[in-house]
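Quick one:
INPUT:
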């Protein structure tokens, strides 16, 4: 498909126009992109909940453009594609606005050209279930819960397998309503298997605003590089927060794990699990304000068992002679 194709899509030399190609793929399928498609308008919508669409760039110059944002929905994947914004800078380059069930994959060969400030991914829908798979691409922030508006019932899992991101976090947290508390309520999982992540924040990013998080947030590191894991928000202003913040480190390279003191109104429990001898491999751990720290010998594994927003216990796998589990808290 191409922006102005008039062919029958029998070859790259005979592409058909994008809208016609998508209508033919009524039950889902793969669309190969030739050249540049998209819009100069502010928003470009891709995907829907009724069908699975795979968008693959044909050749080395496949580009999707939009003025400010790409609005994604349903099950959609991208391979060998460059995303390019042509309008004024906008923080949330990728948004989920309408669909309740979303499974988005940024596959191999994805680039975000010139997106130093705009490579954000943000869900804007309460009661939505989102899976975000990142195999390539240079993102700044990937948010699991919201930008700044209160959202509830959001269940997001980010599988980070490659590429780079400045921060994986629950929400940004800023608002021009400085005296209003936003509430982020849901389940948020960040699983890092590869790539490079500068920071994982099991909270919100922006300082100076008092927001609340009711939910279970997990950071699981199996591979790749994570410079810093923040066990709660980036400042001490978080209020009335409940449920769980869990970091489980099984492998990879982790520079620092840190936590901040809660306000008196917060009851959320912070749990750090260092499996497979990773307690001796993490560069720095500040555990003064972490409720429970579990250190497991090389070859051993402990995982927190949760039910909804409650901690039910732990699974423990230490079958080898000489294995140990050290629990503090």
């Amino acid at each position: 498909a191409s922006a102005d194709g008039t062919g029958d899509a029998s070859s790259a030399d005979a592409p058909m126009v994008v809208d016609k190609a998508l209508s033919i793929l009524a039950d889902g399928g793969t669309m190969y992109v030739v050249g540049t498609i998209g819009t100069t308008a502010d928003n470009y919508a891709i995907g829907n909940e009724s069908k699975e669409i795979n968008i693959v760039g044909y050749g080395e110059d496949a580009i999707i453009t939009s003025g400010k944002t790409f609005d994604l929905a349903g099950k959609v994947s991208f391979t060998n594609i460059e995303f390019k914004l042509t309008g004024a800078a906008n923080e949330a380059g990728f948004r989920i606005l309408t669909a309740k069930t979303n499974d988005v994959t940024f596959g191999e060969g994805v680039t975000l050209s010139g997106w130093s400030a705009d490579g954000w991914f943000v869900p804007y829908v309460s009661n939505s279930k989102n899976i975000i798979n990142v195999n390539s691409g240079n993102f700044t922030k990937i948010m699991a819960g919201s930008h700044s508006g209160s959202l509830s019932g959001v269940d997001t899992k980010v599988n980070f397998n490659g590429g780079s991101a400045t921060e994986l976090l629950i929400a940004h947290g800023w608002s021009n309503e400085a005296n209003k508390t936003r509430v982020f309520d849901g389940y948020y999982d960040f699983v890092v298997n590869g790539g490079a992540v500068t920071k994982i924040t099991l909270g919100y990013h922006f300082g100076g605003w008092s927001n609340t998080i009711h939910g279970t947030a997990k950071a699981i590191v199996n591979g790749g590089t994570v410079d810093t894991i923040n066990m709660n928000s980036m400042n001490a202003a978080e209020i009335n927060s409940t449920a769980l913040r869990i970091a489980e480190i099984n492998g990879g390279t982790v520079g620092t794990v840190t936590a901040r003191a809660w306000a008196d109104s917060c009851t959320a429990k912070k749990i750090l699990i260092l499996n497979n001898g990773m307690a001796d491999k993490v560069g720095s751990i500040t555990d003064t304000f972490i409720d429970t720290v579990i250190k497991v010998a090389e070859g051993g594994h402990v995982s927190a068992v949760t039910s909804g927003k409650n901690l039910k216990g732990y699974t423990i796998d230490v079958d080898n002679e000489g294995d140990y589990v050290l629990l503090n808290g």
